[in-house]
Amino acid sequence: MEMVVDKKETSEELSFAKRLKFSTRTDHDGVDKMVMASKPFDNEANYAKFLTLQHVFHSTVSPLYQHADLQGLFPGLAELPRLSAVELDLKDLGMEPDVDPSSLEKVDDIYEAIGWLYCSEGSNIGAAFLYKETQKLNFDADRGARHLAAHADGRAPHWRKFVAQLDALCLTEEQEALAVKGAVNAFDFYKKALRTTGLSVN
Ligand code: HEM
Q1: Whether the CB of 1 sits within 6 Å of ligand 1
Q2: pLDDT tens sequence across 74-133
Q3: Residue 76, in any domain of the structure
Q4: CATH number of the domain to which 40 belongs
Q5: pLDDT for the residue 104
Q6: Is there an atom of ligand 1 within 6 Å of 92 CB?
Q7: Nearest CA residue ID for atom 9, ligand 1
Q8: Which of 41, 79, 106, 126 matches a 20 to 30 Å C-alpha distance to 9?
Q9: pLDDT less than 70: residues of the chain
Q10: Domain encompassing residue 22
Q11: How far apart (Å, rounded) are the C-alpha atoms in residues 65 and 63?
C-alpha cells in the first residue's frame, strides 16, 4: 500500500509535513511491506508478536510525549501516546507487557524527536487498515486492538491538527534536517524491532 506523494511538487515547494512524508516514503513503504509480509493478522500467535513489536515502538516514543519542550510545541501531546492502550491489548491476549529496556532507543535531540513523533502519529493513519484486519481475529477497540482504534475526534481531523502543528513550527534548514533524520531513524528502529520480535518476513 504505497504512500502517494504529489509528483508535480518538488521537495522545496512542499510544506514541512509534506517534506517529512516525501523524505521518508521509501522508509515507510519498506516498513509497510515488511509488516504485511509477516502476516500479522493470519492468526493470534502472529498478532501477539505484532503487538510485542508495537509495544517496543510505543515504549520508545512514549517519553517524547511527556517532554515539556515538545508539549510546548504540540499542545495536547500528553494525551496522545498509545503505550497504555498497547499494554492493555497485550493483557487482553494474556501476555505481560514486559519490555527489555536495552531494546529501546533514547532520543535526546528535540528536533530528531519531532521526526519520531511524526512517524508515531502518522502510523495512526495506516492503522485504519490494520484495525479492520484485526476484526478477522475478533479484536476491536475494547479488546486486543485498542491501540489501533481511531482517536476520539476521528483519524483524519486528529492527523490534520498534528500536521498543522508541524507546519507551524518554522524550523531552520538544519533543524528540519534533524527532524527528517529522526523520522528515518524511527522507521529504521521499527524495522530492527520487527526482526527481533520473531515475526517472519519471508
Ligand atoms: C502494514 C503496515 C502499514 C500500512 C498498510 C500502512 C499504510 C499507510 C497508509 C495507507 C497511509 C496513508 C498514506 C497516504 O495518505 O498517502 C499511511 C500513512 C503513514 N504511515 Fe503507515 N502503514 C503501515 C505501517 C506503518 C508503520 C509501522 C508506521 C510507523 C512506524 C507508519 C507510519 C506512517 C506515517 C508517518 C504516515 C503518514 C504519512 C503522511 O501523510 O505524512 N505506517 N500508512
Answers
A1: yes
A2: 999 999 899 999 999 999 999 999 898 999 999 999 999 999 999 999 999 989 999 999
A3: yes
A4: 1.20.910.10
A5: 95
A6: no
A7: 126
A8: 126
A9: 2-12, 202
A10: 15-196
A11: 5
